[in-house]
């Protein structure tokens, strides 16, 4: 029979106390010092190099045991004192229970839920991204110590938000490869917090590569063959993954469901062995998206037999299968000679190495680094404050005719209207866990003013106008009106792409009717991951302001209210282009091309030159800023590899030098930009720096982001921002063969509202005629 509530509360208290004081809620994964049978085994000796320990462990395994370690739910090996392990956990923007490796309950009822990634990316704040990663991994380690989570987290998602309809665009850092790459590297560093080879948790960058279609007009990710040029692969789709591996030192990469140019990514040795592990030097493991090895055979019919699919994946460089396929079919692949046991050993070496770097074979968790983390380190006031600060930094002010910020003296009564006006779970988006707690927009606004609440629509689908009259009455009698509209996971989500960009259902009618009825200023607040065509609101003078909040996390309502009433001066910038509805009529989601061609308009701000609702990088403030160049070189030299030119008889007839022919380890040039706050309010300014190559460069971007800085500047003061510019890294482009080159000639730098020309020339000094 059920125990009394008081008994349960006492039990939870005792459990939490034990976890806090002893951190022994988890039995050691392996190498238990109390187990006399295993503690002396070579693979348990922490003083030996990891590769020696890994080799010893693999040598002790039978082939059937090895095969059952190739999948996410790896079996226990009692004879070696090794527990079973679930590899699949998620931590996209907080510890999540989407994967089976993590669960909430008992001493861990929830975890800090940060804003969805697209919102955090809008902060353009690299240090914030890393700080969030550190907090998330603190909470993940605490839950691992308490027996409620794993240590391998399949996050972040760094795919390019190529198409505005993509349901999973919300999980990504946006449409720009440089922004996505910087986010990837910094969030991974925060998550992994490496000390030498040791990891706090193991991150995973996904989904490699050219994956950004889930289910659109009958085309789904399981059947989709992404036809991608070498040029687009090199200068767009691969960029964030390279940054993840090379700069972030990520411990894992996940291959995707789709095919790329006719081959499943999880069976493409050029991508896995050649690029990820070969060119970029991954020190870690490669994992499949869940059931994607099975999809290769069952759905894509890539091979004639299942064991051939298993063999192709392992030979291509796959180390771990999220799903049962390899556990079922690898044995037959070995029996038929399609792969050898050595191939299996190589895969296991990569996964077990990561486990050892995590300390999983080092005995007692409590005796290891981070072993003291427990329930008291989850949902701490500091962590929740960071979630609030992240939401504040990610909110973007799209339009303001002067009505914002609202005044607590002039706007004493606020009508709060809309299907997202009092939501909680909506604010955390997808791949989320159980939040520590929530503050809805209605609750946040109520801290500043008396509120009158009307939903207007019972859901974001907004299929009827039956509640519109009440909303109009509320607006007619309030000093100000805030409409909280937009999307949720019923409209955009994994395996749910949109077909259009307009507000769902009758939302636009509700907004317009309320704006006409409103006695005071009307503010439109949008929750969404993807862009929305709100041209009607942008052009309506009765709608005095528009705010995009993304999915702002557990503290989203507080952050929205703080921006509305001026406690926070917004400084976010859009990480993706907001297109008009007629754009999607011209662009099928299945066209992976980035560049315009014929009647095809191209994608993202880098290549699309047509009309937009709001451009990439757009974001207003309650104050104003002025830029001036304090130090701006006008000439940059590209030092060439003299040995290469001397031995290969290269000429300089080309107007673009291959990056690999340049000495790219030379120091960058420094640009000093003075940013002055010319308004009356302290504010945060995000300085975006773009480059445009010389005219005549075929297929080059219209412009490309090369750097950004977020700075807080007091009213009336000035701050100097320093930006490094290196020709190899920042002024290069990719030709149609996928080769990165540095165009010679005059490049334009767009620094805030300034434009500066830089002449780039090859330095031939030392080369004999």
From TrEMBL:
The signal peptide, as residue positions, is 1-25
Q: Which UniProt keywords apply?
A: Glycosidase, Hydrolase, Signal
Record keyword Transferase present? no
Q: Which residue intervals define the domain Fibronectin type III-like in the entry?
A: 685-755
> What domain of life does the UniProt record list for this protein's source?
Eukaryota
Pfam families assigned = Fn3-like, Glyco_hydro_3, Glyco_hydro_3_C
Record flagged with keyword Ligase: no
What InterPro entries does its record include? Answer: BXL (IPR044993), Fn3-like (IPR026891), GH (IPR017853), Glyco_hydro_3_C (IPR002772), Glyco_hydro_3_C_sf (IPR036881), Glyco_hydro_3_N (IPR001764), Glyco_hydro_3_N_sf (IPR036962), Ig-like_fold (IPR013783)
What's the name of the protein? Answer: Fibronectin type III-like domain-containing protein
State the organism of origin: Hibiscus sabdariffa
